[in-house]
Design a protein that fits this description.
Elements lengths: L2 E8 L3 H21 L1 E9 L31 E4 L6 H12 L3 E4 L2 H17 L4 E2 L10 H8 L4 E8 L2 H13 L3 H11 L7 H4 L2 H15 L9 E2 L7 H9 L2 E12 L2 E12 L11 E9 L2 E8 L3 H16 L26 E11 L4 H11 L4 E9 L4 E8 L2 E2 H13 L8 E5 L3
């Protein structure tokens, strides 16, 4: 006779309700594949009385989520509350201490406390599964931990945020400005009412910290990493990028350089013919560069109830099969501290858009600043606006140090001919 496994769901929004319905509908199929019968024993929600499309028996409702970790008849807790602090944090720590398996979609929690949670799970011989925390339904975490276990990973990069990808690709296709496209993304449900963490790159940075830790067998980075969002990208930049044969994407990049780790999240100009340039809408895509496999590519929907539930079910099945494993692929005792690569020594080509006064000698003044900072110009366009007595200068540079770009940017900002803060975007070969 198959053993019954009791599950508690903490957090019952769109994802929680979708997960519940999917599991109820497919539990026979899951039991065939795992040899265990998954049963949803309890559910906890912020508002129990909220009108829902599905009927939940009263016996399943629990008022206090923290009680779930203390119940003897709960084997697995699925945490869908969110946030790195408060109830979510208390619940997951308590669950692991009380030898409950935990499945979570909480990237913020894992990025901040993943090391401590992993050590606790290992100590108590329970699972901590978090596939849904990065890239939705794309099995990136399991691919790195298991599918590519024999490989030495050198670099991992890609598009980890569907909201920003939708905005950038929509600006290009519709030729509408940033705020018009953002409003549409909110109406379509592709952007939250307050999408700040998506737009400023923090969401992608949290996901990147998790992937870096798994890929390179390191503790999760507590260092400040280079993080820039897309708020300052406008339609003008997208159209000029197109003229030069590029598209603009928000990329998350993690790699080993000289035995040190460099992590960065920022907009990039990438060639039109690259794979990532053609990932549009809300899709995510991740490239893993490893030895001996070479480059592996995973793409799919990075958010939403369906993709997230797919990842949650995958984690559930792993637990039901009895696969007790290290949360980050190897023992917490063997993971090492990160030695951070000095970002100022990173080199790249770049795109700059500089708005200046339309006066004689301005261009000469600007190019002298570039020469002063040892930055070589590859391409230059000057677009005058006689009506408003200003001009836009577009410059593509050869490769140079991040340190020199910082000095250049500072000098340009102080220049009397420059009307506003220049736009600076790195060019990435991917």
């Amino acid at each position: 006779m198959k053993k019954k496994i009791n599950i508690a769901i903490a957090g019952f929004g769109n994802i929680g309700s979708y997960f519940y319905k999917f599991l109820e509908k497919n539990k026979i199929n899951i039991s065939i594949k795992t040899g265990k019968i998954p049963l949803i024993k309890y559910i906890c929600a912020k508002n129990i009385n909220k009108k829902r499309l599905i009927k939940i028996p009263k016996s399943k409702w629990i008022n206090n989520p923290l009680n779930l970790s203390l119940m003897d008849d709960v084997d697995i807790i699925v945490e869908l509350i969110g946030g790195s602090e408060g109830v979510a944090k208390k619940l997951v720590f308590s669950a692991l201490r009380n030898k409950k398996h935990v499945i979570t979609a909480n990237k913020a929690l894992m990025a901040k406390y993943g090391d401590q949670l992993a050590a606790l799970a290992e100590k108590n011989r329970v699972n901590l599964e978090y596939e849904a925390s990065v890239a939705g339904g794309i099995p990136i975490i399991r691919s790195i931990k298991e599918g590519l276990i024999a490989n030495k990973i050198n670099k991992i990069y890609g598009i980890l945020n569907g909201t920003t990808n939708f905005i950038l690709s929509s600006m290009e296709s519709s030729r509408k400005n940033f705020y018009e496209v953002l409003d549409n993304a909110k109406k379509l449900g592709f952007a939250e009412s307050n999408p700040v963490s998506d737009l400023n790159g923090n969401d992608s940075a949290a996901k990147l910290r998790i992937l870096s830790s798994i890929a390179f067998n390191k503790n999760i980075s507590k260092n400040k990493i280079l993080t820039e969002g897309i708020q300052n990208i406008n339609l003008t930049d997208i159209l000029y990028a197109k003229k030069f044969g590029y598209k603009i994407k928000l990329l998350s990049i993690s790699e080993i350089k000289m035995n040190k780790l460099i992590e960065r999240v920022h907009p990039c100009l990438i060639s039109n013919d690259s794979f990532l340039a053609n990932i549009n809408g809300v899709l995510n895509a991740i490239v893993i560069d490893a030895m001996p496999v070479g480059k592996s590519v995973l793409q799919g929907e990075g958010a939403g109830a369906g993709p997230t539930s797919s990842a949650l079910i995958s984690d559930l099945c792993s637990i039901l099969r009895g696969n007790i494993k290290y949360p980050f692929g190897i023992s917490s005792k063997l993971r090492t501290k990160i030695i951070k690569f000095n970002i100022l020594k990173h080199t790249s080509s770049s795109y700059l858009r500089i708005e200046v006064k339309d006066l004689p000698g301005v261009l000469s003044s600007i190019t002298k600043i570039f020469a002063k900072n040892r930055i070589s110009i590859k391409n230059l366009l000057q677009n005058p606006d006689k009506k408003n007595r200003k001009a836009t200068i577009i410059i593509i540079t050869h490769k140079n140090l991040e340190k020199n770009y910082n000095n250049l940017f500072s000098n340009l900002t102080k220049n009397k001919f420059v009307l506003k803060k220049p736009t600076f975007i790195r060019i990435e070969k991917v």
